[in-house]
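--- STAGE predict ---
source: upstream dedup step, 1 unique chain passed
mode: sequence only
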Amino acid sequence: MWLGEVKDMADRIIRMRAALRGELEELGSKKSWNHITDQIGMFCYTGLTPAQVDRLASEFHVYLTRDGRVSIAGITTGNVKYLAESIHKVTKD
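--- STAGE serialize ---
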């Protein structure tokens, strides 16, 4: 039983990685976001700079570690679009 629950969580994380990458690409980002789906696990290094991370926090109330690491487990179908839009805004300049 618990093994099935672990698989469900792992599959959800994979779906959220794909959703985040898809939203960023749909927004027309010129950056490559392949690394989001190439990485595995509950966290992802986004490639964002400390200045971009600071801007995410101050302008959009999106919080990552200053090295650009985001918790994929914290991404949901309800917030993935907002997260992608926020990342897109701080990376397109």
